[in-house]
Every structure is written in structure tokens, then in C-alpha cells.
Amino acid sequence: MKRGTQTKRTTIYDLAELAGTSASAVSAVLNGNWKKRRISSQLAERITRLAEEQGYALNMQASVLRRDRSKIIGMIVPKYDNRYFGSIVEQFEAMARERGLFPIVTCTRRDPALEVEAARAMLSHRVDCLIATGATDPDRIVELCAAAGVRTVNLDLPGSRAPSVISDNFGGALELTRRVLANCKKEYGEMTPLLFIGGRGTDHNTSERIRGFRAAHAEAGVVVDESLVLACGYAPEKAETAMRQLAEKTGTLPRGMFVNSTISLEGVMRWIRRSGHYTDRMPMLGCFDWDPFVAMLGDHIEMVRQDVPGMLDAVFEIIDSGNSDLKVVQIPPVVETIG
Question: What PROSITE patterns has UniProt attached to this entry (predicted)?
Fold first, then answer.
């Protein structure tokens, strides 16, 4: 049998010969560095056209040479597995397309190394702007983007080197704690300290929620012991472990809880069901997150719904205006009773 002849793959040297220029000039054009090399736009246009005609495997830079902006906008998110971040991604993509932008989104799993890797990949695709959502080190991302001349806006967690849009975590936590304390008083006839569980004590959002949690207790004249503030991380397993250890130490857990995300709530409910600790009745619950399925856990559960449309409106207002003031925009969340 005769083997089919394989078509020779076009190289930059072939393109250089066709364009009547050097291979280094072709490489600079295809890598997006042609302006720095002072290559004319006419030559860049010719090389790009030839590359397309010859079926050369263009990278993203080569595809945007004919316009000043790529119209690509990037976003990194820490998680996909809850409604909050999922809603951010969905609405970000819709709002970007409404503006004629092409959105690229990637999940970094709250890993600083993955955040940097993702930012570099976005820059290689010549994004016009990068939205750093819930980044553990947003200033590092801004540093990388600034070196490439790319704007950055922080979302969900603030940074010090770019504009930030976040929820009013203190105000939301203050109101949520007030409601759970009131529910405890109504149910049990007295206000007793709540348990705070979930989140990272080192990040801005959790520290502000703890501050609101404490302020509501102080307002009600209720003293909170340090042992009842468990900023153990967001993973369900960490919440479950923290509750087990506290129960082993104290024997009795509070009758009300402030849970710092639906992810942590998963671990809380798993521990309650496995331990049999609350055999007579479920504790009064408040969660700084929102999911309608939580209604299945019982009646009168308080939840904070973060205003994702409002936050993204503020993000795009910053982008559209070109404003680079290092301000932090706080969007009030909504506290809702589920069930």
C-alpha cells in the first residue's frame, strides 16, 4: 500500500521568505512583540495574512494584531462549587458579551501558585483586563498585570494596588448575627453566645464578618468566648473536625451558629447528623452565603445573599470609566429568612 504523502508544515522561515523579511521579524509579529521591534503595521498585516493563508498555527497574539485591543477579558475564581461563585461567573460572562468582550474564566482552587500561573496564562492571551475574584494574593496578580500594561480589578476580596469591589461583610455579618440571636431568644427565652465557624481568619472578608459577629453580641450585651470563634477554613471536612474537637473539649455546643459559607455548612450538617449532638432540636442557624436548598434543613434559617449583579455592575463601571483610583467599593448584601 502506498502511504499518503504528508503535507509539509509551514514554518516561520517559510513565512519569512514569502513576506520578504527575516524569521526574527515573523516571530516578533506572531508573538505580539512587533511594536517593540518597530516593525511597521503594514508588514505585521502582511505576515498575519500570509500565516492565515498558509494555515500556520496562530497563537492568540497573532490573531489580535490588527486591532489595538484584544477585547478579551479574563477572570480567575477560587471555586466553582457554590452558588455565589457560580453566579459570579455566569453573570460576568453575560455582561462581558453584552459589551462585545470575550470572557475567559479559570478556577484557581484558592492556591496562590495557581493564581499566578493563571494570571500569566491570561496575559499570554493578551487580555485587556483581568478580574481577580477571591484571590489569596491580589497584589501579586496586580504586579504581574501592571508589568504587562494590563488593568486589574479585585472582586470579592480587596487588594491595595488596584480598585476593589466587595460585599459589606461587616454590615451583613452584624445583621445576620442580630437575627440569629433574636431567633435564639424567641426559641429559648434568652440570648446566649453563638458559635462562629468557617472561613480564614487571615482574609479580609472573614475578619470583617467576625468583627460584625462580635459587634452584634456586644450590642446585645452577650459575651463571646474566644473558643467559640472557629475560623477553620472553608472545606467541609475542616468545619466537621473543628466542631468535633470543640464538642470533645466543652461537652455542649451553642444553640445558635453563624456559619461562614454554604461549603462550611455542609461540614456542620454532616457533623450534626453523625454525632447526634442536637437530638432534641436543631440549632438556630445563620449562614453568610445563600442557597435555596438550605430550606430543606429546617425552618427560619437566616442567610446572607451577596448582591452579585450589584458587584459586577460596579466592576464594569470601573472598567468602562477607566478609573484606576485605589478605592474599595462595598456593596450591601441582603439577609433573607429561608423557610
Answer: HTH_LACI_2
Q: Is the domain of 22 the same as that of 122?
A: no
pLDDT per position as a tens digit, 13-72: 888 899 999 888 887 787 766 777 788 888 888 888 888 787 765 444 444 444 457 899
CA dist 27 → 10, 43, 45, 69, 91 (Å): 13, 12, 13, 20, 37
Q: What is the pLDDT of residues 66-109, one digit of tens each?
A: 445 789 999 999 998 889 999 999 999 999 999 999 999 999 99
Element (H, E) at 109: none
Using CA atoms, how far apart are residues 192 and 10, in angstroms rounded to an integer? 75
Structure-block grid coordinates of residue 323: 478609573
Q: pTM here?
A: 0.79
Residues 109 and 237 in one domain: no
Residues 6+ apart with CB under 8 A from 165: 153, 154, 155, 156, 311, 314, 315, 318, 328, 329, 331
Average pLDDT, rounded, for the chain:
89
Percent of residues in the chain assigned helix, strand, coil, to nearest 5:
45, 15, 35
pLDDT given at position 59: 43
pLDDT for the residue 68: 59
Place of cell 452577650: 222
Element (H, E) at 152: strand 151-155
* Residue 310 belongs to a domain: no
Beta pairing class for 256-259 and 72-77: unpaired
User: What residues make up the domain containing 289?
Assistant: 169-305
Domain match, 51 and 89 both: no
Q: What is the pLDDT of residue 53?
A: 82
Q: Measured in whole angstroms, how far is the alpha carbon of residue 218 from the centre of its chain?
A: 32
DSSP run (H or E) holding 199? strand 199-200
Cβ within 8 Å of residue 312, ≥6 positions away = 88, 91, 92, 95, 155
